[in-house]
Please model this.
Amino acid sequence: MQHDAYSENESRIADAAFSTVAGAPGVRKLRGEPLATREALVQMFLPRTADGSRISGIQVRGVSENVFGIRPEVRIVRGRAALAGADEAIIGSAIAGKYVGLSLDGTFALRSGRQVRIVGVFDSGGTAYDFEVWTGFDVVRTSLGWEGYLSSMTVVLDAPQAFEGFALSIEVDKSAALVALRERSYYERISEGLAHSVQALGQLVTLIFACGAVLGATITMNEAIARRRKEIGVLRALGFSALEVMLAFLVESVTVAVVGASIGVAVASGLSAWEFTITNYSTGNELAFPFKPAMAIVMNSMLLGALCGVLGGLLPALRAACTNPAVAMRV
Model:
């Protein structure tokens, strides 16, 4: 895409650059034709079907006819593919029926007076394409007056190792002002801010709940020790040391905390059945994703629960350890 553009939406490239990119070394050919596609992107805003007052950004991608050869993971699951040159479009499965006009046989307007009909629904296996509308490359360009320009180009290379040579061959021409990125690297870059926001929010919520857990453990253990002062006094009188008493209550506190963490992890795992909607401000596109628990996250949660048990039970355990057996047994 354009070398100083952050995302495809901001990129504008002259049509003439396509032949340079398609003919660059390393580009795979199928029946003598390079596996390369031109694309034009535009953002449109539509109300949600469930809540008409909520307006969301949807990315419309104008694609070439060979797009399914470039992206074999994309397949039509309902309806049919859009005809070349026709005012037709296909939509990702993740947005089908969720926005006004974006359903099979529905219509939307790229510009006033030009309606585009939805003729198919596609699925890309959960990638970002599932949240896009695909129509003809020239349909987008003519609707918005972009004749002679495009947003980005995508090519398939002979091998991953061919990327360095491919990138060098097109970036060395400063007049074209292009930059080459691996597709995965591009999506990681434009999702970086979103990922950091979600992580920061998660860490803030974790800190708040952890403080609440520590306070709850402290209150619970203080109450338990207050009710068992005589038992503590008997243990001290029988020869149990202050350290042993303290460790006994710490173990109890940690056990209760770990049980609580286990219940919390089990409940949180149920969130994978729901999708959460958020806007990627790098592209303006609205995305939905589930929270899928990973083993590392589960283990960290259990360890954090145990730590909350230690911190919450430490002061009460010290108080129990300092109990005078003679005084406690007279209570």
Summary: The longest strand covers residues 36-47. Residues 206 and 304 are 10 Å apart (CA to CA). DSSP finds nine helices and 14 strands in the chain.
